[in-house]
Amino acid sequence: xxxxxxxxxxxxxxxxxxxxxxxxxxxxxxxxxxxxxxxxxxxxxxxxxxxxxxxxxxxxxxxxxxxxxxxxxxxxxxxxxxxxxxxxxxxxxxxxxxxxxxxxxxxxxxxxxxxxxxxxxxxxxxxxxxxxxxxxxxxxxxxxxxxxxxxxxxxxxxxxxxxxxxxxxxxxxxxxxxxxxxxxxxxxxxxxxxxxxxxxxxxxxxxxxxxxxxxxxxxxxxxxxxxxxxxxxxxxxxxxxxxxxxxxxxxxxxxxxxxxxxxxxxxxxxxxxxxxxxxxxxxxxxxxxxxxxxxxxxxxxxxxxxxxxxxxxxxxxxxxxxxxxxxxxxxxxxxxxxxxxxxxxxxxxxxxxxxxxxxxxxxxxxxxxxxxxxxxxxxxxxxxxxxxxxxxxxxxxxxxxxxxxxxxxxxxxx
Length: 414
Known about the structure:
Number of helices: 17
Strand content: under 5%
């Protein structure tokens, strides 16, 4: 008798739905299953830094010459900045059209100091990327420092004599293979883990109905903005720049997207994203290993859009009518803050404090949006991962690669 095997992304979707029902109707017993989600997340977090180090070093050593590395890096950064700006502008247009904070009775009081500049300069941010102690940076999880070290170490390997270069290249290729095998073992726990995570989140969100009524327009503005970016902007980029079928690509990366939505962690989803883009889309390892770990740290389209909408929403709730210059400051700060945001749950809430400081709004206004942030975090994290996968396709296409999800179908399959 033939066994019926349910595909992993359907298992995850079913687990997500069951988790919602468990959190709603059996919340007093949520401790029975919440620990499973914690185990799953800890497993993913355990392999994040080893995967970043081995994938980036392996990718760079396989790219070869310094010219190739510089070309890929430039293409990747241009894509990240462009899509982040498009996301921010989408959010800015919507928040000005809908005006979710105008006239809202949200009980805000306090003086607004006025607009000031960001205290930490961009130059200082770049300086702090250079780790004084790489082992301390690894322990503290400073992703930008780790990525910079991995990039430089991989580049140096390409410059040494052939004997040592081949030895180190083989070592990091083998290390990356081993990490991906370990990843696949952890991925098998995904349905159970996501069931536990969602059940816990739903059980802890007690006043969701009341919050939704007061913050409804704000939530709708963010979700509509993310939807436009996910369903229009990025698919158009996939279709015309990467020349792939957006629906086929969505099917190829459905597992990491559902995981990103459930865990609210771009970094925790990274192992699944690497696996899906390489094996389902057909993008080469040298591209995925370079673009996706970098994207999981610095490419935060959903976070950038959210931060922009949240800042303008709070300004509206305080009765401020922002000028074009002030809104431009919000755009620039949102871009820089999203680049610095770590790929972990609630990172956007931490980074919004930078924007509020930049435009002189009281930080206690965060209390307005923190109550619904966990829900919006799920949507914006999925957006971040969707954009990361799109970037890998665009860069790979400019390098002459073809995919299993190309618009021409099987004729272009690798």
